[in-house]
Design brief:
β4 and β5 form a beta hairpin. The termini are far apart. This protein is of the alpha/beta class and 271 residues long. The chain is 44% helix and 22% strand. The chain contains 8 helices and 11 strands.
């Protein structure tokens, strides 16, 4: 499979950090990356073309763009990957490998993947959790991040960690607690939502009604600010996040009621 990188070189500064999102249902990592690109007015460096994929073109103000593009902020040293569509899981390992190859060629020492997870305890906290390489763990603890004590990381996040473990570049997976993911998990644990299909339908409807998890995205931006040692502006995201928690709680019960009513209607009548 041919993956072509058409990206301008950047200043070879060891403090530069590559930031991307691991797509998951809350979309908080994607929101955080988009927010960074727009707020920092980042410069477009170029794009990554995957020839094996069906042609998909993003349109921005009437201009045709490839769906995977890199942006750079000289003031903060942050390079961000904008994904107009998710990278398909079956090619993700090759995609991230090519991206990390470019990063190493440009002397980038750290790559950070932003993601989310359900609350660890009953009450949502501002904690941001991490999974990283052994030599980075103490540094992240010093920044106030919480290690995932034990578990297995799979899917896109697992592929990301697998890719960085085999390279000299330092890799960090940051996970913010998400009220949206926690609400759906609570419904699953209480038996109110049972099948995978219903879970995905509920998540899809929730994101459609209340939007991606802006609260978790805000936590990720603040965490990244601590990690890179630069103050990143958050005012616009704070305003949106303040309304988000209420909207999630309000819409979860409403959507669950609609889902359960639909399930009852699907039961065939015995004549």
């Amino acid at each position: 499979m041919k993956i072509e990188v058409k990206i301008s070189p950047i200043p070879r500064d060891r403090n530069n950090v590559l930031v991307l999102s691991c797509p998951e249902p809350s979309l908080s990592g994607i929101v955080a990356v988009e927010y960074l690109i727009d707020t920092l007015k980042m410069e477009e460096l170029g794009a990554i073309k995957v020839e094996a994929l069906p042609p998909v073109i993003a349109v921005v103000e009437g201009v045709a763009k490839l769906p995977y593009r890199l942006f750079y902020s000289p003031d903060t040293g942050i390079i961000a990957l904008r994904q107009h569509i998710p990278v398909p899981p079956q090619i993700y390992a090759q995609f991230i490998g090519k991206l990390l190859e470019w990063a190493e060629d440009n002397n980038i020492e750290m790559v950070v993947c932003l993601s989310a997870m359900p609350n660890v305890s009953e009450k949502e906290s501002d904690n941001v959790f991490f999974v990283t390489e052994e030599q980075m763990a103490e540094r992240l603890k010093e920044h106030g991040f919480t290690p995932i004590k034990e578990g297995v990381v799979s899917g896109i996040e697992g592929a990301f960690l697998d890719a960085v473990l085999s390279r000299r570049i330092k890799g960090v997976l940051l996970l913010a607690e998400s009220k949206l993911l926690a609400s759906v998990r609570r419904l699953v644990e209480t038996g109110r939502v049972g099948t995978h299909r219903d879970v995905m339908a509920l998540l899809h409807d929730l994101v459609g009604k209340v939007g991606p998890d802006a609260v978790a995205a805000l936590k990720l931006i603040r965490a990244l600010s601590r990690l890179v040692g630069r103050e990143l502006p958050t005012q616009n995201l704070e305003e949106h996040a303040s309304k988000y928690s209420f909207l999630v709680e309000k819409n979860v019960e409403m959507l669950l009621s609609t889902l359960q009513q639909s399930q009852r209607q699907e039961i065939p009548q015995i004549l």
